[in-house]
Amino acid sequence: MKVDVLLGLQWGDEGKGKVVDVLTPKYDVITRFQGGPNAGHTLEFEGEKYVLRSIPSGIFQGGKMNIIGNGVVLDPILFRKEAEGLAASGHDLTQRLSISKKAHLIMPTHRILDAAYEAAKGVAKIGTTGKGIGPTYTDKVSRNGLRVGDVLHGFDEKYAAAKKKHEAILCGLNYTYDIVELEKEWLEALEFLKRFNLIDSEHVINTLLKEEKSVLAEGAQGTMLDVDFGSYPFVTSSNTICAGACAGLGVGPRNIGEVFGIFKAYCTRVGAGPFPTELFDETGEKMCKIGNEFGSVTGRQRRCGWIDLVALKYAIMVNGVSQLIMMKSDVLDTFDTIKACVAYKMDGVETEEFPFDICETVEPVYVEMAGWKTDMTKMTLENEFPEEFNAYVSFLEDELCVPIKIISVGPDRAQTIVRDED
Ligand code: GDP
Ligand code: IMO
Ligand code: MG
Hints:
Layout: E1 3-8, H1 16-23, E2 29-32, E3 41-45, E4 48-52, E5 65-68, E6 73-74, H2 76-88, E7 97-100, E8 104-105, H3 108-121, H4 133-141, H5 155-172, H6 180-193, E9 197-199, H7 201-210, E10 215-218, H8 242-249, E11 256-264, E12 267-269, H9 282-290, E13 303-305, E14 307-308, H10 309-319, E15 323-327, E16 337-346, E17 349-351, E18 363-370, H11 387-400, E19 404-408, E20 416-418
Parallel strand pairs: 1-10, 1-11, 2-5, 2-10, 5-7, 6-8, 7-9, 11-15, 14-16, 15-19
Antiparallel strand pairs: 3-4, 12-13, 16-17, 16-18, 19-20
The protein binds guanosine-5'-diphosphate (GDP), 6-O-phosphoryl inosine monophosphate and magnesium ion.
The site of 6-O-phosphoryl inosine monophosphate has 24 residues, from helix 4.
């Protein structure tokens, strides 16, 4: 079998957690391949709501195997909180969750470095989630990182050496901090981590594929936050695109199957950086209010705007998306008109190609359509869709040249409509 990959096509928070949970019954194994506790993946079912950070969203459906892959960066403190919170609500994961020994550890000093670097950037700050993501990936690439497997041998020496490097940087930045309590909690959390299966996940996953087991890889963040192809430097520090699943799990490109690209019927962004279709008026406020657009990790208000097809086409291209999933269409249920950005105007010239830099002066070129003005949240079948909504879906499919296979009409697991299932 192959690994199917599900990933965000916008600036994150597209609804990945919800859809992974919906798709889980079709798979034997669910994996995370990049990112870390900067992610907040929300799932709602049977009146309960869960927000997952580092743990795959496949843990709630019928005893599936879940793996945190080598490409993930793991904070033992936040992982412990997440796992203990789930255990308290009746979801003990110790036997169902395995962690790659090659995943990198977020150290207490990584979190402090994240804050120090942001402070040093001043107005040019990225608006990170403050979880130490950038500094941890920096150490990985500069070959100074600490990996999960290190907790099993020679840990003290490696930890002391990495911490010393961080202390020197923080001293150079003149950044004051207190690490005592945080470090104590972190070291205790490492002991908790050891209770889980710490595995060579690349061997395990490839063996499972040979045994005809099906694997779903759950992306974090979104393509426009990818370190290579996103709106650099306002990005995260990992490859959020499909290729990241190969590197973050140790599977060859020929072992990738379907690539599910997920997007909102409009667009949001949290943190700093360009966002060509951002709305600063009451329409944007309405999207934010109805869509409850507040970050699941930091609680920050998400910036809202119309769907951006220039960015979406680019995201589909760099990921090789084979199926699309549209989320939160219900948020637009009461809008009189719907707009979609089909081109950017830059220095008076129109382009449909996503540019090197999306600077502040990019002007979106919109097409406008009639809204459907119908409550779709209780619909369960495609044939109940209003005409104007079908027109919006057909327009998007024509523009994007990839079929929209799933439409989500509410946050609950049940509010999901699969189209043309054969
Ligand atoms: P993720 O990071 O991609 O998993 O997305 P988040 O969980 O951060 O943000 C998506 C938010 O939208 C969550 O609060 C979900 O409960 C909610 N959500 C998901 N799908 C829908 C939908 O179709 N309609 C509405 N109204 N909310 C949704
Ligand atoms: P999920 O998986 C939305 C954003 C941050 C910031 C930038 C860099 O829930 O979709 P980082 O802490 O990664 O160094 O921050 O990326 N960001 C996200 N935005 N959803 C996420 O994850 C995000 N993870 C990071 O707001 O702009
Ligand atoms: Mg999120």
